[in-house]
Predict the structure.
Amino acid sequence: MRQEFLPFCKPSITKEDTEAVSKVLLSSWITTGVWNAEFEKNLCEYTGAKFGVALTSATAGMHILLKALNIGPGDEVITPSLTWVSTVNMIVLAGATPVFADVDRDTLMITTETIEKCITPKTKLIIPVHYAGAAADLDSINDLAKKHGITVVEDAAHAIGTFYKGKHIGCDNTAIYSFHPIKNITTGEGGMITTNDPTLIEKLRRLKFHGLGVDAFDRKQQGRSPQAQVVEPGYKYNLTDICAVLGVRQLARLKELNEKRTKIAMSLRKKLKDVAGVLPLSDPKYDFTHAWNLFIVRVVSEKITRNQFMEELKKLNIGTGLHFLAAHVQKYYRETMNVAPGVLPNTDFNSERMCSIPLFPDMTEQDVNDVVDAIKEVLAKA
C-alpha cells in the first residue's frame, strides 16, 4: 500500500503561475481588468469562437445565459440527468422545466435518439454535455435542433482541449467552460461563455455586472466608466484579474497538460483492460480528440458496490470522485420530478456504478501502478 494519499485530482500550478498571481496582487488593479480581457481573447483564439465573457463560475454562466435567452416559465430544456446538478438547478430557478434525455451506456452522452424522444412544442433549448473530455456528436445534435428550431448550448465544463472532427467544440454553438480546480486548466474558481453572437455577448456582459451598459472593465477606457447606466437588472459575476492571470498562464500550457493527461489515461486504460469487475468508458465512434478531464470506471462486480469500492480504495490511500450522481435521484428532484423507474435505464446503470479514479498531469507511472494495484486488491478481497 502506498504511504501518501493520492487524490483523484490535483491542479498543476507552477512557480511561474504563483509569481504571475503575486504580481497582480501587488499591482494597482486586482479585480476585472486587463488580464480578464487577455484571458477572453486567448480562449476565443484557441477555440475558434468570436466572443467570450469570463465569469466567477460555469454555474454563473448558465444562470445569465438562460436569462439572456429568455428561458423561463412554460419552457422546457433538454439535458442529461447524468450531469452536475448546477445545470438542472439553474433551469428550475429560471422557472423552466428540465427534461432528461437518457445517455449512451458507455460514453455517458445524450444522443439524437434520446433527445428526439424528449422534444415537445415547449422545448426551447438543448444542453448536451461533453462528458469527461470526450465530444458529444455535434453534427447530429445540431441537425436535429435546426430541424425543430431549437437552440443548442454546449456544456463544455469537461472539454477544454476537446476537438470534434478537427474543430474545437464550442466553435459553432454557444458554450460554457469551467475552470474549477478539477478541470484541465484552473483559475481557482471560474468559468467562461463563448459565442459567435454579438448581440448575445453584449447582453451577457451586462448581466454579469449589474446590468451596466459597459463591461465591468471598459476595453476602450482601460477601466470602469463612472457614467455607465444600468440598462437592465444584472448580477455580480465578474472574474477577478487574480484569477484571470492564472487562466492565461494555464491556457498557454494546455497542450502540454492534455498530452500528459492522455499519456496517463492510455496507461490506465491498458492496465485495466483485463481487470474483471470494473468497466472503463468507451470512446465514441466518430472523429474526436479527447481532453481526458476524468477517467471514469463503472463498478460492475456483483460482490461490491460502488460506494464500498470507493471506501476500500480510500483505505489504500487512493482517492476517488463521483461524477455524477444523477440529478433525478437527488432528494429534491426525486421528490418533485418523480421520474418513473426504467425511463432512464443507461443513466441509472451508470449513476449507481460510476466513479472517477486519479488522473492529473503530475501523476507518475508509479502512481498509475498504485491505482491499478489497489483496484485489483479491492476487487480480489470483495
